[in-house]
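User: We ran a pulldown and think these components assemble together. Before we commit to crystallization trials, I'd like a predicted model of the whole complex to look at. Sequences follow.
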Amino acid sequence: MVHILANPKRFLQLSARIVPIALVLAVVLGAVGLYGGLVLAPKDYLQGEAMRIMYVHVPAAWMAMFIYAALGAASASYLIWKHPVADCLARGASPVGAAFTAVALVTGMIWGIPSWGVAWVWDARLTSVLVLLFLYMGHIVLLHSIQDSEQASKFAAILALLGLVNLPIIKWSVDWWNTLHQPASISSLERLRDPSIDGAMLWPLLVMGAAFMFWVMALLLLAARREIAHRRLRVQWLRGGRG
Amino acid sequence: MAVGGGMKLGRHITREWRVWWRQPGDWLASLLFFILPVALFGFANAVVPVSFQTGQSLILLVLVLALLLSLDRLFRQDWQSGILQQWRLRDELGAVIVAKLLVLIASLAIPLSVLGPVLVYAVMSEPLIWGVWLPLALVYAILALDAALLGIVTAALCLAARQPSIVLVLVFLPLCLPLLIFAMGAGLAAVEGTNFWPPLSVLVAWGMIGVVVVVPVTRYMLAELE
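Assistant: Here's a predicted model for the assembly, 469 residues in total across the polymer chains.
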């Protein structure tokens, strides 16, 4: 599958079909999820209405981690097989990932004020997610600060792979340390069968998670398509300049 | 073959060691950068006292920052003068990286990890307890070694960047934060007399992975440079 997508032409054809479908699914599922979360789901007995920010905060945090994993996979693929599409995906993934991490952090801070009394605490979960934002930023800066584009891609790919160590820390930080941040309510398929969150609150969250997943898929594909188009333009310009 | 490799390594270690001593400004700056903020922290602590736990955590952070200061120059002169390219052609990059790493550890990581726990007690004005000092020294030493291993990779990573010093800070510090989290956890456990081995063993594991990975990864990056 990875090797089939390595051909830019085939990738462009396939992504042109996937992007509109993913965007439509994201909008439909997002509308259903938001209606379920903001209107149908009961308010929390402790946190009241403030808990509804969860329907944006949690999927954004999931996506922040998922995009970094995708960035790591694309980087490994680029370093091992030299797939140009993998490089385009990696280049597009870090700004999208940084945006979702920032959304997760900001919504978390907004949620923290009514539930903890403070917007920010230096506990392991919050700090490790902040580190994730810095890793995305470091990746963007490194990509743009090395003049040779191919060299920049290789070095940024190594940085992305080194940064993967942060993902398990984020995931298990709430279990390894005593944190103010609550433990995961649905950390695995087993927990999904017996979650610590009421079913009426859970289904909109899962629907929002799916909506965010399709949205991210569309954004990543669009970013990769943009990068491919940019490279083609550059090649055309160079050919025109020489001719 | 092994004898030839050992001789190459010995030659590079001697060279690195000489270069290091001929440029005392570089390593002295790092050492002073470590001592000065810690001394100022001691002064501030006399006015507004903080706990011993907080103090040792802050000093761990300063140790990493002091190490960061020395990283930018690690490969820069050799790269700019073209020597790195010659070593690449002679297939000596691996030996160069190991030599630089060993000299960095011997000249900076070890002095910082020895100074660290000494300064913690000096600044915090606490009575010396060997049962606390020894684990603390171990935490400082392993953190310094791990940070040096990471530092070699990030120094090579940022070599070709337009503003290498700034990029180095942006790349090195986020990668160091997981190390700091575990080091601070181990330091805190050592001070409180609880079990400090779980977080410390994570640091040791990190170091062992680093020992295996750092040289080939750095070599790959240096070979990619024009």
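Chain B touches chain A through 26 residues (CB under 8 Å). That may be worth checking against your pulldown data before setting up trials.

User: Thanks, that helps.
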